[in-house]
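Lab notebook, bench 4. We co-purified these components, and the gel suggests they stay together. Before we commit to crystallization screens, I want a quick structural picture of the whole thing.
Request: model the full complex, all chains together.
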Amino acid sequence: MGIEIEQSHPSVELSSIAISETHGENSPYFAGWKAYDEDPYHEITNPSGVIQMGLAENQVSFDLLEKYLEENSEASTWGKGGTSFRENALFQDYHGLKSFRKAMASFMEKIRGNKAKFDYERIVLTAGATAANELLTFILANPGDALLVPTPYYPGFDRDLRWRTGVNIVPIHCDSSNNFQITLEALETAYKNAESMNMKVKAVLITNPSNPLGIAIQRSVLEDILDFVTRKNIHLVSDEIYSGSVFSSHEFISVAEILESRQYKDAERVHIVYSLSKDLGLPGFRVGTIYSYNDKVVTTARRMSSFTLISSQTQHLLASMLSDESFTDNYIKINRERLRKRYDMIIEGLKSAGIECLKGNAGLFCWMNMSPMLENDTREGELKLWNEILNEVKLNISPGCSCHCSEPGWFRVCFANMSEQTLEIALKRIRDFMNNKDRKDIEN
Amino acid sequence: MGVMSMEQPQLLSKIATGDGHGETSSYFDGWKAYDKDPFHITKNPQGVIQMGLAENQLTADLVQNWIMSNPEASICTLEGVHNFKEMANFQDYHGLPEFRNAVAKFMSRTRGNRVTFDPDRIVMSGGATGAHEVTAFCLADPGDAFLVPTPYYPGFDRDLRWRTGVKLVPVICESSNNFKLTKQALEEAYEKAKIDNIRIKGLLITNPSNPLGTVMDRTTLKTVVNFINEKRIHLISDEIYAATVFSHPSFISIAEIIEQETDIECDRNLIHIVYSLSKDMGFPGFRVGIIYSYNDTVVNCARKMSSFGLVSTQTQYLMAKMLSDDEFVERFLAESAKRLALRYKVFTGGLIKVGIKCLQSNGGLFVWMDLRGLLKEATFESELELWRVIIHEVKINVSPGVSFHCSEPGWFRVCYANMDDRDVQIALNRIRSFVMKNNKEVTVSDKNTKHCWQSNLRLSLKTRRFDDIMMSSPHSPMAHSPLVKAST
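Here is the predicted assembly.
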């Protein structure tokens, strides 16, 4: 309908937050999703559609969950006549179900190979890591303050950490010269950068294992970061959402381990974020947690979680599942193996197409280096290539600029949200694309 | 673990170190007293009976039966597990279409099908708590204010203000006209805010009212709509108690006024409804909050914000199935109203017998009890003194009017739907004993006679150390429900 209806009076203002763009949905990260939504690949009904490789989901281990549910049907857990259903439906205590918190603590310990202990009383529940990260930001920083975040980082942080909180992100620049590791120099530079912009730095926020790099942070680097935040008297938030997706357990070091080895000296400034969205592949259930070594943060976060509690129905389900030790031991082991297999498959496939990736050991994606393919070594060059890949190769992958990478040409490619067959097809498309490019180069 | 020495105090934000969480309110003190000494029919028969929690437990059996008869509604049963993967993976903030459709239909049904709701305008949130906060974030900037008629739900102080920086400006309602909201009160509050340099962005009404339990009549609703249109401010109608209305006059939703009333002009972009399944269905644990806005921009913005508080797809799936079962919903709503009506009658009848009046109401899960006659003085200090007596001697947790920002002392909100019949009688017996013990001069007359307190009524109020009550509890104020059914 193109009829213009004259506005007799201007519409009432919404808030500044409402009209701002900080929700971030205009980033290319999301534009690719839109392209996928409009033309989604399906092996039978739409075999030439866009394959979604921009979504970091874990779909490789669903059968294990389904098997558990079949053997432990919920009907049996509601009691005679379903009486405990009612109790559960009424439960809105922001402490969360004790059985669930204990199960989460134990699961987090298992993922870290029992190298760190978690006290279930320090677990605060939130509806997803999205909420957990925002909540911590509200608690640790005032509007106008800054969080230091290593680049490249998860695009969602721009919204989660900044949108409603009014807090700024100041990047800690990492580059390929040392495999994107965080250096003390980079930390200091970022800190000074924030200061020069008159922003008070309140915390460093790391993602370990890293999204989008797909690597677990090395022990020495973690020690350095911990020393740095102690020197500056600021907080450290460690988002360990991919901790269960490390291909071999001994390669992941959690900040929890380091704190334990230091007898928890200065632990009050450390807070861990976790979720079941990646490791268990349950993003729809909205299960996030904050684990803080700071009593006041635990109390305050718990109160704030009123805005974002986990459905008691879901807590009940997961309490059972995660207390079942034979299930969790088996799941963690098999999930790791399958992710490693997928990772190997995609790395091999890309290699045979002439594409190198950063050597990774975790996560649901690889960090692909296509800088040799860029026409221009710029953000525009990267986006041009990205568009080509989206529209010609029909693959949605995430351009490094959407992750605030300081070097153009890197792309995050997810491999765990599809079947092996689909991954094969995606790899074939890439191989064909690269072959065509080679031929064009030769012809030119 | 976690007890460390720091060079300097660990700095947290102003939001974290302030009192915005609201837990120092007297509203929560009673819960703390209950937590320490909870009533249980066999294990602790002298404990505190929880009548400060507005929960609906009267229809649990209907729901339980439905759950047991519909195993496919759960994705964790053999019948439903084939849908598990799809649900577990689905994190689209639009929500499951079948969920939105079912909720839209349910909202319509609870308004007697007099109005329909568009599923595309339904936005999820972390309970109504989350819905209110999101609405405030969308409509107002820090420092802006919402007008709120008193008395109002204490949680608003936290939900609307804590992290948003938004203020609340009370619109005073008085017992002289049964706490009805008047144009004069609205204008007064608005003008005062103007003088104080506070920018009003909206008016928040709760209809049916918490704590009054009354519904807004059509005239008042039209007054409200005219007021907000004239002032060009938003209207948020919290209709969380919509289906708890059990008798006439019936509940009129703001949606009906917008859709049906042709003699008033209204900019729909100003109208927003907050809803939830916590009260009508009795599912507070499931965190099903809804924002329904007639403003496209607000829908879009709130939807993006819902990422911070989505409803678990496991729950969306169950709710979609349950609320689409037309026969069940019809039966549920009818039975719920019937049981609430009976409970109200029993409870208020018992109170009348000992000369205690309540505001005439026909909804909500509570009564607004008038104890002005028992106050030593018409002050809030006296109200709190009386309240301490009720908690510690009568052993009932009720909520004092001051915590609802009531302008007149002596009123108390008493919840009656979160316990079974037997425990209602126990509560009434305790109240009866207390009144009898302290009032030998008042004659107890039958239901048809109007009551008035004798002015020479004297009560011996044992003073309690304030500290006893203000001790902080490690537990949340959102206490466990008093499931007072005996296990034997």
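The CA atoms of residues 223 and 304 of chain B lie 33 Å apart. Worth comparing against the SEC data before the next meeting. Chain B has 16 helices and 13 strands.
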